[in-house]
Structures are given as structure tokens and as C-alpha cells.
Amino acid sequence: MPRTVSAYWLKLWRGNPPGIFLALLSLVVGCAMFIPVLYVFVRGLQGGTASWMRLMDTRIPILLQRSLGLALVVTVLGVVIGVAAAWLVVRTDLPGKRAWQWLLALPMVIPPYIGAITYIIIFGPRGWLHNLPGAHLFSIYSFGGVALVLTTFTYPYVYLICSASLKRMSRSYEEAAQAAGFSRGAVALRVVLPMLRPAIGAGALLIALYVLSDFGAISILRYNTFTTAIYYQMGSFDHKAASILSVILVLISLTLIWLETKTRQGQKFYVTKGGLARGAEIPLGICKWPSFIFIFMLFAVSVLLPLGVLGYWSYTGIVRGALDQRFFGFALNSLSTAGIASILSMTFALPVVYLKLRHPSIVSYSLDKMAYAGYALPGVVVALGLVFVFSNYLPFLYGSMAMLIISYVVRFLPQNMQAVEASLNLVSPRIEEAGRSLGLPPWQTLFKITLPVVAPGILAGGAFVFVSALKELPATLLLRPPGLDTLAVRVWIEAGEGFYHAAAPAALIIILISILPLKWMLSKY
Amino acid sequence: MKKVILTFFAIAIFVAALSGCSAKPGELVVYSARNESFVLPLTTAFEQQTGIKVRLLTGNEALVNKLGEEKNNVQADIFFSNDAGAMEFLRLQGLLQANKSPAVAAIDPLYRSDDGSWVGLSARTRVLIYNTDLISEENMPKSLWELTDPKWEGQFMITRGGNGSMVAHVAALRVAWGDERTTEWLTKVRANAGVIVSGHTDIRRAVGSGEYKFGLVNNYYYHLQLAEDKDNNVGAIYPDQGADGMGAFVNAAGVALIKGAPNSSNAKKFVDFLLQPEQQRMFAFNNKEVPLVPGVETVSEAKRIDEYKVMSVRLQDIGAVWADVKALIEAAGLDWDLSK
């Protein structure tokens, strides 16, 4: 019997089993990431036919229409703007193209809920432009307003991925097409665009998933989607309805991911080596300055306007004494919760990734996928799952800082895993084998050989987690213990009351800290 | 860059260690459904006078459900409520603790529970705040039922049904009108309102700036808007004052003592503290509310409670129907419909 068990064990790991400690640690991390989400699902399905029917009759149709409508419009707009910007910046003789390359990525660091607040300050009914003739024709508190704000702060997903793709794309196909007599427009539409398809798909998926999960911007703009509905149901402790709505939202997200991979299959393009020689810039001719104005306006609405507004109100706030002792207390809360979350995720990312890359098997693959659960899903769903788990099984930790920090780890650990995976991929297993053949036990190989090489990746991942946790709003609002408001929560509370001078300094700090890891983010694409 | 980040994490660990080690004894945990700007000056003054650290969680009336959810794992000591109905509901659920403080006993029995577990601190009356540049007093609706009239479509603001003041108000209307008529009112008002927001501050500012003609608020929001530097051309209608009118609804904001509170003696200290004349003056002049401790002055624009007709609903009676009323509100779809 023991022989068959060990034989089975060997077969499971394809003859390359990991140490028991590594296997256990990864198992615990993978399951811990997955359980909260699983719990929501089970609770939702157990919700009972009556509750499902009641929600189906009243709320679900309108929420579906709103969530999907918003995701569709924002994605389409984001793709159009992102692709156009990427093409102009990478391929043409646009003035100042070097600077634009990174300036257009800057909106990434502005959380959409902060962006939404600045737009309310400018375009809102009591905003700076409110005395302008015709100002009443456009309401920021509308579908159009929400779509505009979300597009402004999410187009960089498509922009970044497409410009990276354009840079790598060989020019020979375009030249061939041109030689065959295609006009420049036809080349762009019939050669470049199809080759960009995978990049556009990946970027569009990110935008759509983001729109489905956004809570802050949408609720500040008084709109309602699945995410805000779940938040309000949770707020009134109707966990059953919140779970049911969550199940539907999770299914929508998974369907999107599945659709994207499905349509990508059979649409592969290979770039032949050697054809990468830089072609000449495409002259824009008469369109040069209109294009410049387009790019400049994009930068203005997505970066200059928000930062200008925040700068103005921060100044007003600081003059009025916004940076008091309380403020530093909130900053401390933010730094400590985000700091601990990033340390934990740096610790837990390596074992899961190491297991996946060095001991590939169905187990390590599943654990890796399970750890991604919290990342693909909206923060409100993760928060709901944690409330279930903690109040039922860990009541002594309920309402403590630990619950908040764990929610950050569940949501953002995969960011750290991606960074670790990228750097661990660069370490050949041969080097580790050499270490072991020289007599080092596996754990020493890990500490002496692997760790020093992947450390930059781990740290970069930790920085991503830190920044994401700093910006996090929905789970923080739902899980923060009494007296532990973070900067993000303060921005939310103060802006909700219209105290922009108190909200702006906190918002500005969040943005400034978020700029730090942007360098890595840009080099990633 | 690497160094910067490493230092950064080192600091973060240090800070986390510090905050993790904080001592627990001299604490008070306050769940507050009230606007933070009304509560914070009081908790800060309490901290300064007693040295007890107050941990404040600002939320909304949903905290009532949170308190119920945490029944076996009590986190809060005090619940600061906008609405006496919610506090009485908690008492009926067995979630509150009796309080024999003489300061509580000094309050009119109308505005406290018999066992002293909750006590009203300030009165608020539901009024219609209106922009005097956009609509004259004569043209304003004079009763709440008039809000269902299609002629007001898109012109006024109300809060979500989840708002505590709103729940109690609907409960009072239900006593006067019964289920069917109340549901009709909720459904029609929901359809008619220009926008449905989560708080009253939004309403007073938007009406003050002329975004909407009028809105349903607690009277001190009208007093607060009058005191603004700009956008202060506002008036207030005390509704249903006609000969056969039902009168305006008066509620009390107050505090409740949670059963099994981790810091029970601090909580009692806090209740006594709030009932001192100094703090009551803070309610009257910072928040521009009407204090319930006898003999405390109010701002001049606040109407005295004997100057207008008041609905005859007893606040205690709202507690018993609180959950039913919330169900009614949800059925009418007013609980979280933020957008039109």
C-alpha cells in the first residue's frame, strides 16, 4: 500500500515531487486565497429560489443592463482612444513622441474614484464650470458622465499593451502591403489592426473587468451597477442578496475571460525574426498638429485637470490646516496596513510560483489559478467572503486590522506572483540543480541561489501590492475596524460631504506614492 | 530605487509593530450613524477631558444590522443614532443595556427609553428646504403627499430609504396612512424625485445652489445652509400644518448603550458627558439642532417645538415596526436606488 501511495505521489508530480514543506505552504496559501470567494458562491447558490426569484424580478435585469452597458461603452471608447494614441505615439512623426510615451501612461496612477471627484469639482452642478452657458446640458451624474470618467482613467490599459505590441511588430508586412498598392489608411486598418488584435483583446479585457468591479467612481457619480448594489446589500447586512448578486457578477467576469481566450485561439501571428529593423516614421503631414492637439487634450483631461484640481484644493486645505495630527494618523494607518499586506504577499508569492514553475503538475497549476481568484473579482465580493469566513470561524480576529490586511493580500497577491514569475522564469533550473549537486539541501539552494536572483522581482511585486492596497476602497470601507480610517477612506468620506479641501491632500498623497512603481509597470509592457 | 523601497518597507514594519502594540484599556468604541462632522467635536472633547481613546466608526443606519450581526462578538460600546426608532428597535432585540444615570432620567420620558438604555440628545423635525430664488413659499408643496404630484417631477431631492431619518419618517407616515398608502407614496416619490442621494448634506448644498428647487431634510440642515457664506437663499416649509394636516414629524437623535460592551463603564461616562450643558450647547450651536436637555438655548432661526403642529406618533412605537418599515422601503425600491 505505501508503495502505491508513493507511486501515485510521484506520478502526480510527473516524477519531480516538491518538498513537503513547500507543498503544504503553497496549499495553504492557494486555499486561503480561494476560500472567501468559494464561500460567497456557495452562500449565493444556497440563497433559495424565493430570494433568487425576487431579485430576478426586481433588480437583476436593470443591473445587468447597467453593468454590461457601461462595460461595453467604456471598453469601446477605451480601445478607440488607446489604439489611436499608441499608433500616433509609436509609429508617426508626432511632435514630442518620446515624452508622450510615458506621459500618456500616467492616468494609470490616478484611482478612478479620485478622478471622479475632480470631475465633479469641475463639471458637477456646483462645479467650476457651472456658470458657463450650456453647462446644464451635461450632467456628470449620468451614464455619460460615468462612462467618460471611467474611459479617461482606464484607456492606458489598451494604450500600454498596444504600444508595446506595435514596438515589437515587424514593419515588413506593412511595407509589403504598401508595395502591393495599399493606401496608408488601408495598411493601418487591414494589416496593423489585425496584428494588434491580441493586444487589443488583452487591454479590452482589463478595461471591461475593471468597469465591472469598480465601486468608487461609480458610486461617487451616483450610478448603480452590480458592485454598488452588492455594497449596499452588504451595508444593510442582507448577505443573502449580496451573495446572489455576487454570483452573477462573478459569472459575468469569468464569461468575459473565457470569451477573450476563446476568440484569441486560431488567431495567432508570429513575428519572424530579422524583420524588426526600424522603419521610417510615418509622416502625418497635414494631420500632424490636429493629432498633436488630440494627444495633448487626452493628456489634459486625464492628467492635468485632475492633478490641477487636487493641487488647488490641497493648497486650500493645507492653508486651512488639513495636515493635522488626525491626518498623520490616517496616513500611518494607510502605510501600516498596506505595508504589512505587501510584506505578507512578498512572503507568500514565492512558494506558489516556485511550485508552479519547478514542480509543474495539476496540483501546482490549480493552486496558482486558485490564488488568482481574489484578483479577478471585485473588492466587494472578496470583502463579503471574508466577513463570512471571519465571523464564522475566526471571531476573535473579526473587526481587527488583520481582517483588513488579509483582504488586501487576497485581492493583490497575484500582482506579486506575476512579478515573481517573470523573474523566476529568468533563472535556469540548471543553476539550482548545480547548487544541489554540490550538496546544498533544497531550502539552502532556495535561500542562497534562487532568492538573491528573484529578489528584485519580489520587491517590485511588493511595491505593486503596496500601492494597490493604499488605493483600495470598497473592501476597506466594509472591513475597517472602528477608528482605523485609511487615506482612501478619508478621501471618500470627506468628498462625500463636499469637503474637498480635506479630501484633496489625502488624494494627492495616494497618487504621488503610486507613481513610484510606475517605472516597473512601464518596463513590464 | 531598491534602497528607497527597502527603507520604505523597514519603516512600514516599524510603524505596524508600533500600532499593533497599542494598549487597550482606556478605550471607547463608538459606532455612529450620524454625519461625522456632528460627532467628531464631541468625541474629541471627550478624549481631551478623560484621556479615554475614542475609536469612531462612521457609517449609516445599517450599523443597526451590524450590531445585530455582532451580537455574540460585541465590538461596539455606544451607538450614536439619527433616529430613536432604530435605538428602540435595538432595545427590543435585546441588544441594549439599561442605564440608571440620573442625567438620563432628567430627559423628558418622550425622548428616552424607560430603562435608560437609549436617550435622545437633540430633536429634529422633517422639513422641506427650498431655494427662495427658484420657488416662492406660496408655490411650495405644503404637505408630504403633494410630493407624489407629477408636476414636481425631477424638481426635488430625497435621501435613500436606507437613511435613518428617512426610515423613521416612513415609519411615522405608515402609522398615519397604513401600508398601502405608504407604499404608494414611496413608489410615486421615488419616480418623481429628481435625484435620490444618500445624505442630507448633499440635499442642502444642491438646493442652496439651485440645482434642485427643494428637498426633504431634517430642520438643522436648513439652519446650516442659512449659515453658509453663499448659496444661502433658502427657506423651510414645516409640512402638513393645515387645519386637518397630520403635522410635521419630530424625531430625536441620541445614543444607545450596547449590551456586553467591552468598555461598559467608559460608555456610561460618555453618555453622562453628552448630557452636560456644554455638550448640549455644542449640539445647539455647532450642529444647529434643538437640544433636549431643558433650558439650553438654541439658534434663533430654530423654531421652538411648540410653534408648529407635530405628528402624534410616539418614538418608542417606531422601534416595534422598524424592520417592517425597512421591508416596505425595499419593496418600493427606495433602499439603494441612487441613480435615476
Please characterize this protein's 3D structure.
- The complex is a heterodimer of chains A (525) and B (340).
- Chain A is built from 24 helices and no strands.
- Chain A is an all-alpha fold and 525 residues long.
- Chain B folds into 2 domains: 2-123 and 252-300, D-Maltodextrin-Binding Protein, domain 2, CATH 3.40.190.10; 124-249 and 319-331, D-Maltodextrin-Binding Protein, domain 2, CATH 3.40.190.
- Chain B is built from 12 helices and 10 strands.
- In chain B, strands 1, 2, 3, 4, 5, 6, 7, 8, 9 and 10 form a 10-stranded mixed β-sheet that branches.
- The termini of chain B are far apart.
- The interface between A and B is large, with 47 and 57 residues.
Structural topology:
The complex is a heterodimer of chains A (525) and B (340).
Chain A: H1 2-12, H2 20-45, H3 49-58, H4 60-91, H5 97-103, H6 112-123, H7 143-168, H8 172-179, H9 184-213, H10 216-220, H11 226-235, H12 239-264, H13 288-319, H14 325-358, H15 362-371, H16 373-376, H17 379-393, H18 401-424, H19 429-437, H20 442-471, H21 474-479, H22 487-496, H23 500-515, H24 518-524
Helix pairs in contact in A: 2-12, 2-14, 2-15, 2-17, 4-5, 4-7, 4-9, 6-7, 6-13, 7-9, 8-9, 9-12, 11-12, 13-23, 14-15, 14-18, 14-20, 17-18, 18-20, 19-20, 22-23
Chain B: H1 2-20, E1 27-32, H2 36-50, E2 53-58, H3 63-69, E3 78-81, H4 84-92, H5 102-105, E4 118-131, E5 156-159, H6 164-177, H7 179-192, E6 195-197, H8 200-208, E7 214-218, H9 219-226, E8 234-237, E9 250-257, H10 264-274, H11 277-285, E10 290-291, H12 315-331
Parallel strand pairs in B: 1-2, 1-3, 5-6, 5-7
Antiparallel strand pairs in B: 3-9, 4-7, 4-8, 4-9, 4-10
